[in-house]
Amino acid sequence: MSGDCGCSANQSFDGRSPAYKRILIVIIAINLGMFFVELFGGLAAGSMALLADSLDFLGDSATYTISLIVIGMPLAVRAKAGLFKGISLFAIAAWVLGSTFYRVFIEGVPEALTMGAIGVAAFAANVISAVLLLKYKDGDSNVRSVWLCSRNDAIGNLAVILAASGIAATDAAWPDLLVAGIMGSLFIHSATKIVQQSWRELSDERQRQNTGSDNCRENL
C-alpha cells in the first residue's frame, strides 16, 4: 500500500526556489516604481496608452505579490491564484478598452516627447523583468502568469514608443488610441491562457485526489 494513497506525477516548476523568490521581489519593486512613473507621466502627457500601461504595472505588482505568497502551497491554491490573476487581467482589459472608446470622443493630442521617453524607460524595465523570468516561463499557472505579464508589458511598452512616434509624425491622437486598444486585446489573450491553464490544473488535481481516494478504498 502506497504511503500517500496516490499516484506520483511530474509537475511543472512551482516557484519553490530562493533565486526565483528573489527575482520576484526585484520585479515587484520595478513594477511598483514604474506604476507611479507612468501614472504621473500619462496624466502630464494626456496619454491613454501610458495610463493603461500604468494600471497594468499596478496590477502586475499585486499579482506578483500574490504569486510570491502562494509559492509552496498546494497545487489547488496556486491554480486558484492563477485563476484570480487571469480574471483580474480581464478586468484590466475591460477598463483599457472602455477608456479607449471614451477617449475617442475627447479632443486632445497626447504629448509625444514625454510619452516616448517614459515608454522607453518602461520598456527597459520590462525587458529586464522578462529576461530574469525567461528560464521559468514554463512553470505552473502561478509561475507562468508572471512570465506572461512581463512579456506583455514589454510588448505594450514597445507599442507605446511606436505610438509616440506616430503622434509626433501625424499630430493626431489615433496612434495612442490604437495602441491602447491593442494592449487591451493582448490582456484578453493572456488572461484566457492563464485561466485555461489554471482550470486544467484544478481539474487535474481533483482527478488526482479522486484517484488517490479510490486507491485507498481498494487497499483497505
Automatic annotation (TrEMBL):
InterPro entries: Cation_efflux_TM, Cation_efflux_TMD_sf, CDF/SLC30A. GO terms for molecular function: zinc ion transmembrane transporter activity. Keywords: Ion transport, Membrane, Transmembrane, Transmembrane helix, Transport, Zinc, Zinc transport. It is a multi-pass membrane protein. Its main location: membrane. SUPFAM superfamilies: Cation efflux protein transmembrane domain-like (SSF161111). It holds the Pfam family Cation_efflux. Coiled coil: none annotated. It is found in: Membrane. The chain crosses the membrane at residues 23-51, 57-77, 89-106, 112-134. GO terms for cellular component: plasma membrane. Residues 24-71, 81-202 form the Cation efflux protein transmembrane domain. It comes from the Bacteria. PANTHER family: CATION EFFLUX PROTEIN/ ZINC TRANSPORTER, RE54080P-RELATED. This is Cation diffusion facilitator family transporter. The lineage of its organism: Bacteria, Pseudomonadati, Pseudomonadota, Alphaproteobacteria, Kordiimonadales.
